[in-house]
């Protein structure tokens, strides 16, 4: 693994939260000299872990470092069934169970750490399904908004091609062309890969069925990003229009395209651009709620 500069590594530390008896591990970074303006909670996709948001192949990849430098606390969690909770939850959890566990972990975190204006969920792929479910669950529990990449509502693959406990899916669908990533990305990303819990495989097959109900109950602003070379999901204009129309209660829904990026945006050269756009959307959410930006 490429070793990040010491100044970068020192800004990010491991953390374990107690989610009603379930240990959720992750990475935590915070502003060095000022209270955080908000907490960005980052949720990784299937078959990855929280390190996805602290890529080591190049200093510009890390959301954890960038967010802290811009005044936010960044809490990148290992979702239930990953990291410290894997032994406790070998099958993983359903999306509804994950949402409940996430809310419990966030209540514990905000009781012990400054959270500024509140919590903003930034999620990738399967983590996007969790972010949407969490926003629909418990009336969103006061979330500021959602920023989701690599997650839609209509698969571009057959159900038996989805990631499962034996495989993460075709390499090209997850990554795209090599030129989209810094050198040594695939040498340093080995530590980011984890088995896909069986429950996630089952819930993935049902996502297209449950999405309309989940989307209709989201009551916070939503931004969805599709990489230029995204191939897990349909994201043509007609499909995107239908996707947006499902968010009947959300005050704002934005769909963006990230050029020169594959599905794993946060590990590619486009990571910094995407993370800055996501944090700009958070700025919009803060302005909407009347918080000083």
Descriptive report:
The protein has 293 residues and is α/β, with parallel strands linked by helices. The protein has a single domain, classed as Rossmann fold (3-Layer(aba) Sandwich). The chain has nine helices and eight strands. Strands 1-2-4-3-5-6-7-8 form an eight-stranded mixed β-sheet, sandwiched between helices. Helix 3 packs across helix 4 and helix 4 crosses helix 7. The chain is globular and about 45 Å long. The N terminus is likely disordered.
CATH class: Alpha Beta
CATH architecture grouping:
3-Layer(aba) Sandwich
Helix content: 25-40%
Q: Could you give me the name of the CATH homologous superfamily? A: Alpha/Beta hydrolase fold, catalytic domain
Question: What is the 3D shape?
Answer: globular
Q: Beta-sheet strand percentage?
A: 15-25%
Strand order of the largest sheet: 1-2-4-3-5-6-7-8
Assign the structural class, choosing from mainly alpha, mainly beta, alpha/beta, alpha+beta, or little secondary structure. Answer: alpha/beta
Instruction: Report the end-to-end length measured between terminal Cα atoms.
Output: 37 Å
- Poorly predicted residue ranges: 1-10
Under CATH, the topology can be stated as Rossmann fold
Largest sheet: 8 strands, mixed
Q: Round the Cα radius of gyration to an integer and report it.
A: 17 Å
Mean pLDDT across every amino acid position:
91
Number of domains: 1
**Number of separate helices:** 9
By DSSP, the count of extended strands is 8
Oligomer: single chain
User: Helix-strand pattern, N to C?
Assistant: HEEEHEHEHEHHHEHEH
